[in-house]
Structure formats: C-alpha cells, structure tokens
Design a protein that fits this description.
Blueprint lengths: L1 H9 L7 H9 L8 E5 L3 H12 L9 E7 L2 E5 L2 H11 L3
Antiparallel strand pairs: 1-3, 2-3
C-alpha cells in the first residue's frame, strides 16, 4: 500500500490529451494513471522496453519497476503520459 501511495504522490494527476485517454481506453487499458500493472512479461523481458522509453525522459521522470508481485506480474510507476508510451510500444509484443 505504501509503495502505491508514494507513487501516486510523486506523480500527481495531470491533464492528459483526450485522444491519449481514448486510445488507452480503446486499447483495453483504462484511463492512464501513474501506476501500470504488467502481466505476462518477466522483468528481463520488460527491461529493454523500459530502457527505450526512459531514453526519452528526464532522469527524474524515468519509469521504474516498483513492485514485483510474481515472476510475470510487475508494477511500473512514472508519469502517466510516459506509461502510456510504454503501453503503446508494448502492444506490439
């Protein structure tokens, strides 16, 4: 709980473009937030995608795995717009 709370506090809700929100909803991911649950990928499989996304972000906005619920159940925290970018790139996997 505390980890999730800290993630929400570190990345407050910001206004997102309606098209970005609609894309996320249409993709079945729901409304973008600062926390993203990823299932079906191991940490090793996810790391290259995180690194690619983080190349486009400032250091204090990098996406990070903040919770590992199982070998293929991860939670990534960061700015909601950046998480949406990760999701869009992950749809191709």
């Amino acid at each position: 709980f505390l980890c999730g709370f800290c993630g929400q506090e570190a990345f407050p809700v910001i206004a997102l473009e309606p098209g970005l929100i609609q894309d996320s909803i249409d993709g079945g991911e729901g409304t973008p937030t600062s926390m993203l649950s990823i299932t079906g990928l191991s940490l090793k499989e996810l790391e290259p995608h995180l690194a690619k996304t983080n190349q486009h972000l400032t250091e204090n906005s990098n996406l990070q795995v903040t919770l590992q619920n199982g070998p293929r159940a991860l939670v990534v925290t960061g700015p909601s717009r950046a998480l949406h970018g990760l999701v869009v790139n992950s749809r191709k996997i």
